Amino acid sequence: MLVGRNGYSDSLTLEGRLAGGRCVTVTVSDGVISRIEPGGSSRALLAPAFVDPHVHLRTPGREDEETIASGTAAAAAGGYCAILAMPNTDPVVDSAAVLGSLRETARREAVVPVGFMASISKGLAGEELTELGELGDAGAAAFTDDGRPVVSAALLRRALQYAEVAGRPLALHCEEPTLSHAGHMHEGTVSAELGLGGWPSLAESVMVERDLALAAHEGQPLHLMHLSKCESVAALERARAAGVAATAEATPHHLVLTDEAVRSLDPNTKMNPPLGSASDRDALVGALRDGTICCVATDHAPHSREEKDVPFEAAPFGVTGLETAFAALHTHLVEPGLISLETLLERMSAGPARAFGLPEPTLEVGARANLVLLDLEAEWTVTEDGFRSRSANSWLLGQQLRGRVVKTVADGRLVHG
Ligand SMILES: [Zn+2]
Ligand SMILES: [Zn+2]
User: Fold this and answer.
1) Per residue in 144-187, pLDDT tens?
2) Which residues of 240-265 are buried (b: 16+ CB within 10 A; e: fewer)?
3) Which domain holds residue 263?
4) What is the CATH number of the domain that holds 191?
């Protein structure tokens, strides 16, 4: 499912501290962890590298915003050893031909291994299913119409049936468009005060409920993307308690910010789904802590400066995230004691890998080397010229963060640091 540049691997050694505090030296030979020996004096933390199940690489179609080369370089800088790319490109990844050409390019250009999702409906039009079985055989990592919901319940029901045949999960963007269509931000007191069109929490939660009901009925797993509202978390908890095999992700921006941030009218606070209230954010953090939400996903969504440099209401939804995810969550969740470092590392690595059936990065002799070295005390300021991504529409511009990715090893190769 994942493709990267094959053919060689570095022999390298890394010194670091394990989560338990012990200093070790790790030797990688032929891409595999061959030795873990006590010793060394590094203060940096050595951990399994991260997996991002939700990235927009913008290719084909908008290579001015991102490419496989630039997006995977950004991923390497963020500590990721694997990412999954969304199919809402131009053309849409809805055929084995488009999927095959992306996989071919990734074999030449990808700095870290990348998997490509294919769309659920042809052209993301929500009318006709793609050939899920054929796309699964051609290497689709999963199926999603992300960017849009699957509006037709009947179509989603059939997609759940076919996904079983294709052996790949469905990942769903939950949005009821007749409720969200006039919204620029979360519907609440802030939207009322700013006079901006509101997007009610229901626009997400009724679709979450419907999708979980369909999954329960079909006895099929599904993955909920970028959950953002407490009602959605409650629905997920109920469904999981009833035995539905549902997994879910939350983004760094939804885990850190609330709709109060929109008062700045900075277009980099405009996301889909929109930033929620403080109780929404608290519910997401609690669900990430207890594992109801098992993955952090960046929903890295690059936009050109021209597109984002417009009044709030005219701006597109989405922000970048690959290069700042760990530092943002370390600064805003771990340091204030809202979540433990161990939990954050798990939700950024093994959690997403398991949800999508990818190999779990592990720090063990004999495992493929997928490692990240983190300096937890390093302070740095997020600046526009510091990104490997071709886009700089980050909600963190100008902010100081604590915690920095020093080195990344992906599939046995040193790809950052
Ligand atoms: Zn989405
Ligand atoms: Zn997305």
Assistant:
1) 999 999 999 999 999 999 988 888 999 999 999 999 998 999 99
2) beeebebbbbbbbbbbbbbbebbeee
3) 49-350
4) 3.20.20.140
